[in-house]
Amino acid sequence: MQVTSPAFKQNAARAMADVGLQKALGTAKGAFLTRRAAAVAALPEFERLRDVGRDIKNHALANLDFYLERYAAAVERAGGKVHWCSTAEDARAAILKICRDAGARTVTKGKSMISEEIAVNAHLESNGILPVETDLGEYIIQLRQEHPSHIIAPAFHLNREDWEAEFRRSHTDLPRDRVFAERRDIMQEARGKLRDRFLAADVGITGANFLIAETGSSVIVTNEGNGDLTQTLPRVHIALASIEKVVPTLEDATSLLRLLARSATGQDFSVYTTFSTGARREGELDGPEEYHVVLLDNGRSNMLGTEFGEMLRCIRCAACMNHCPVYGAVGGHAYGWVYPGPMGSVLTPALAGIERTANLPNASTFCGKCESVCPVKIPLPKMMRHWREREFERHLTPKAQRRNLALWRYVARRPALYRMATRAAVAALGLWGRGRGAVPTLPLAGGWTEGRDLPLPERSGAGGTFMAAYAKQRRQNGR
Amino acid sequence: MSKDTILNTIRRNLRRGPLPADQAAMLDGRLATHPRHLIPARSRLPRPEQVALFVRNLEKEFATVERVPEPAAVPAAVADYLAAQNLPSRFAMAPHEEMAAIPWENRPLLEVEKRRADPADSVGVQHGYAGIAETGTLMLPSAPGRPTTLNILPETEIVVLRATRVVGAYEEAWDLLRAENRDALTGGHMPRNVMLVTGPSRSADIEQTLELGAHGPRRLHVVLVDDDPAALPMADASPPPRTAEPGGRPAPGD
Ligand code: SF4
What we know:
The structure holds two protein chains of two kinds. Chain A is of the alpha/beta class. The radius of gyration of chain A is 25 Å and the shape is globular. Chain A has 22 helices and twelve strands. Among the domains of chain A are: about 45-295, Rossmann fold (3-Layer(aba) Sandwich); about 415-475, no CATH class. The longest helix of chain A is centred in the N-terminal third of the chain and has 23 residues, at about 20-40. Chain B is an alpha/beta fold. Chain B has a single domain (about 45-230), classed as NagB/RpiA/CoA transferase-like (Rossmann fold, 3-Layer(aba) Sandwich). Classes of the chains: A alpha/beta, B alpha/beta. Chains A and B meet through helix 2, helix 3, helix 4, helix 8 and helix 10 of A and helix 1, helix 2, helix 6, helix 7 and strand 9 of B. The structure holds iron/sulfur cluster. Iron/sulfur cluster binds near residues 314, 343 and 380 of chain A. Iron/sulfur cluster binds near residues 314 and 318 of chain A. Chain A: Keywords: 4Fe-4S, Electron transport, Iron, Iron-sulfur, Metal-binding, Repeat, Transport. Chain A: It holds the Pfam family Fer4_8. Chain A: One of its GO terms (molecular function) is 4 iron, 4 sulfur cluster binding.
């Protein structure tokens, strides 16, 4: 997928002006929050489970090489094949080869963000193989030739009218005057359309939420059941997974699963949590005859041991974006790549390169909500700050901003000068904003005030600056 | 080769070589003993309440449940359910020995076909391996007698489960599998496919609003055979053991 993150500002401005999108965001926003809150409240152990989850992932990552080798050996014992892929290109090639060897004409797909990351659909299509997305949200995204705007709800940005319009446009074999009285009618039409696809497909590609070293299993979590049809009906199943998905045992995966659905959709457990281990066994009446795992690195191993290593704990629950005021205002597409929201602002620069994504770590109000809901306690705001620092060091920050920061640093390192300057600034701001109650525009900071007002400086206390108030307090306390 | 590249990059960034033998042995020990972590207290209950929690959670997730006193009562329960839902009396059933031992001939109108599910089937009857009270979850491991397609293809899935097979937490269900399953191919306990099913299929992809019956079954009905005297509802054992009349609560998808 093309990276358009450098255009975050333009993307965001467009998103804010998009009436349909704003309506969709408004409809969707509250649902996730209330459901998660209820599920968490119903499990008194939830907070302690977050520590458990963090520790399991840390243990797995600290021994990642070991567990990957154990995992791969277990897959192969069960008759599966592991394809180790360093890059997106390797993974695309591996998938194409498996499909070709299977003589595949159509491929059904379960939802997989990694499949978006490596843009496998376009690759298959250009090689004459038809990929069909089967997750309801992914299906309409594919019809509309868009990208998902949310990691667990790909069609987060669409309204019911958009679904109806697209189905009428795409499903031309159905009566034109059919009525979509309820949402269920839309779903039924998609179900009918996709049934035939499931049955016709030669290969099914799913993602994986976890890989289990103990058993060599890949785990998928869905509510629709499309992932299970995808991996059960075709002759060949490909599980597409990145290396950091591996955990040691069934017990480890189970503890993380207790966190996943609650954090994601606010369910106690998803409808289908399925563990796949190898191909059809002796005597079985169904299941794929071949089982492949395409195991992708694509830059993740280089995050280990850096200040972004903890990001590899992410279990892709989307709680951080559901609770993010920036995501809530602009939606997922503005982030310009596969992974939106706070997790995307950290992950995208690491995987796609900070040069191409320098704006993302700034797409934050640093309110800290994301970290406080993250089921594996990833310090997302801290990491976004790390990216900002790197961005500054590597001279990726716009010139005017650099000049101002340099000036600020010069002043800030000289306490007397700093106090004088801030006092002067407070006074100037007070004058500038007088009678307006806030400061709607500010010379030299147009970018900042374009989207928000600067509140007027505090005038209580002595002189208005923190240092002044602090000094006054000390004097009053007689120290 | 990609494998070595990936493993070497991992090791370089972890600032070490391959794990020394003693550490590897320790981790192999962890894999072999698979220690449990914090398990929520909610399912640690006396048997009757544990099974009741299982039933309650199933219903919370839009499944329906009927408790019957013995396997011989299963055919009537299935026939009544199908009639109440206006469903055909012909169905695909798991070719499992426990299912075969049920006296289906007591209900001669039922057309029982022991096989995997096909796309044309509207009803599938599956053998339940275990029930997990914690979230009302069914564990359905694949086996020659328990085809996976029965879990996902038919619009209506009926699962016959014995109450003795209801456990509290997921971990207990894994331990059942570890103790009882020996796979000829791997020598391990893990079948090709293990589905943990919690209610009928659904989607919230259209405006984040829940709709039942996405790609999988739109109805999930559990016939719970009360073969565990210790798990029977306590106190006045007099009221009928049925906790849900067939069709008595709105079936998902209606
Ligand atoms: S960063 Fe945390 S909250 Fe965000 S998707 Fe990942 S696990 Fe969930």
